[in-house]
Design brief:
Layout: H1 4-23, H2 33-37, H3 40-64, H4 72-85, H5 88-97, H6 103-131, H7 136-141, H8 147-160, H9 167-176, H10 178-181, H11 185-194
């Protein structure tokens, strides 16, 4: 089974999700600059979600550069990953509308990030299993690859922080992106050696 259709489908879904998020941004009721300031939390929620989706897409693309084979488990785990990221528009909209007054929107946002992190980890594990015992992905990510597990653990803590101060969940999850902004260096070095 080739990976091209899976990558093209994933790219299309991510593009649609980002488009849905931007379409949810509504202009202010008045032409007064102060009205734009009132929407600052909505814009911040959108920006954080856009960056989060961009980081996931970038890492997904990077990961699939070393993938040679996929199977049914990879297809399903990728679909579950897409299911997780498809919840970002809803969570982003709710956070933007109720930015500080309630912990529930931020908790939901944190749960969406957690679900996405778990599904990305599951996708990596399925790719490793599908690729065989002597594959590039197994050699590069099969051992000592803790980024997904660190993300999951920190994200669980971030969800609990919503009870202390709701924006902490999104703040911690945003800082957690720093772990993923630069895709896995081992993959990058391996690709450079092949060129």
């Amino acid at each position: 089974m080739t990976k091209n259709r899976l990558e093209a489908f994933t790219d299309g879904v991510v593009a649609i999700i980002i488009t849905i998020m931007v379409l949810d941004l509504r202009p202010p009721e008045s032409g007064n600059p102060a009205a734009l300031w009132d929407l600052r939390y909505t814009f911040m929620a959108y920006l954080v979600s856009f960056l989060t989706l961009a980081v996931y897409w970038n890492n997904h693309h990077h990961l699939f550069q070393i993938v040679q084979r996929i199977n049914g488990a990879v297809l399903w785990s990728n679909l579950l990953f897409l299911l997780a990221i498809s919840m970002f528009p809803f969570a982003t909209s709710w956070v933007g509308a109720h930015h500080i007054d309630s912990y529930a929107p931020e908790m939901l946002y944190g749960l969406v990030v957690l679900f996405t992190n778990i599904m990305f980890y599951v996708l990596i594990q399925c790719l490793i299993k599908a690729s065989g015992t002597n594959s590039e992905i197994r050699k590069l990510l099969g051992q000592n690859y803790n980024k997904p597990l660190i993300s999951i653990a920190v994200n669980i803590v971030a969800i609990g922080l919503a009870f202390i101060w709701p924006p902490l969940t999104i703040i911690v999850d945003t800082f957690l992106l720093l772990l993923w902004v630069v895709p896995e260096r081992r993959i990058e070095i391996h690709i450079q050696k092949k060129i």
